[in-house]
Design brief:
Number of domains: 1
Number of helices: 8
Mean pLDDT: 93
Shape: globular
Distance between the termini: 8 Å
CATH architecture: 4-Layer Sandwich
Strand order of the largest sheet: 6-5-4-3-2-1-14-15
CATH superfamily: Ribonuclease Z/Hydroxyacylglutathione hydrolase-like
Helix content: 10-25%
Length: 303
């Protein structure tokens, strides 16, 4: 069994956007919390985090995820809504607690090592941060550069495949195929329509789960982000080419509030096309055939 959780499903605007008074943002403020979206990031439970936005501690808490169990951080690109060093600085609090324990405090576990993986710009940004704080704190963070289409084994169960996104021109933005046990997951945001090179690479997989960029909702797509129409076309193409299993799940994420209807309207519309409208705190369970149905849910898990 493999569990994958969407911690955040919003674009760089957030949802609702704090400075916006459009009808979607106004309605979201008055609605159920499911309409509120943090910056996009996800977790291959319990130890592989994808992206580290500035509000990660809040989205992790909402999803009941324990970040101290994370050992690997995969970063798609260096944009602030996908990679902020602020949450990483909070690792210092463990050392503070160990230096000045309360008399009645139980023994504290040691801060576990974390490896940050990303492109050249991400590596540069992370190393600059570690150099800045290195004289004060040992955050136990290592950095490793990734190259597109060069797979890497994280542990005995987990292998990652960084592939090229169609996003910024300033760096090689990455998408990730994650293999754990017999399951394969494709996390695809931020990106516009996939390149031929990426499609070619994906043909080696039979994906159990795809999580795809749907930033522009009902508006026209751009070179750097998809919309709902392209998300529908992507699912159909992956199915037709056998890249996505017939039983595979397809989830849309990274929604901008200005062009994307609220979740209560979006979810039934996408469901008609076999697409799940992602929301913060959505848990997706992948199980071997015969042991139970693949399913969705909210809340934490101990497995």
């Amino acid at each position: 069994m493999v569990r994958f959780v969407l911690l955040g499903t919003g674009s760089s605007d957030l949802y609702p956007s704090p400075w916006c008074g459009c009808d979607y943002c106004a309605n979201a403020r008055e609605s159920d919390e499911r309409e509120w979206r943090h910056f996009s990031c996800a977790l291959l439970f319990p130890d592989v985090l994808i992206d580290c936005p500035p509000d990660l501690p809040h989205s992790a808490l909402k999803a009941q995820v324990e970040l101290y169990k994370v050992r690997h951080l995969l970063v798609t690109h260096s944009h602030h809504d996908h990679f902020s060093t602020d949450p990483l600085l909070l690792r210092r609090s463990v050392q503070w607690a160990q230096r000045t324990p309360r008399k009645d405090m139980l023994p504290l576990p040691e801060l576990q090592p974390l490896t940050v993986y990303g492109n050249a710009k991400v590596v540069e940004k992370c190393r600059a941060f570690l150099k800045e704080v290195g004289g004060k704190y040992d955050l136990k963070i290592e950095v490793q550069k990734l190259k597109p289409f060069e797979p890497l084994k994280l542990d005995e169960r987990t292998k990652i495949h960084p592939v090229l996104a169609e996003h910024t021109r300033d760096e090689d933005a990455l998408l990730f195929v994650l293999e754990r046990d017999e399951f394969a997951i494709f996390y695809a945001t931020d990106t516009g329509w996939l390149t031929d090179e990426t499609f070619d690479y994906l043909r080696q997989f039979a994906l159990d789960l795809v999580v795809a960029d749907a930033t522009f909702g009902l508006a026209p797509a751009t070179d750097e982000h998809m919309n709902l129409e392209q998300v529908r076309k992507l699912r159909e193409r992956l199915l037709c080419e056998g890249i996505l299993k017939e039983s595979g799940q397809f989830v849309a994420t990274h929604f901008s509030p200005h062009w994307t209807p609220p979740h209560r309207l979006l979810a039934p519309s996408l469901q008609q096309d076999g697409i799940i409208a992602g929301h913060d705190g959505l848990w997706i369970v992948l199980e071997t055939k015969g042991t139970g149905d693949q399913g969705l849910g909210t809340g934490n898990s101990d497995a």
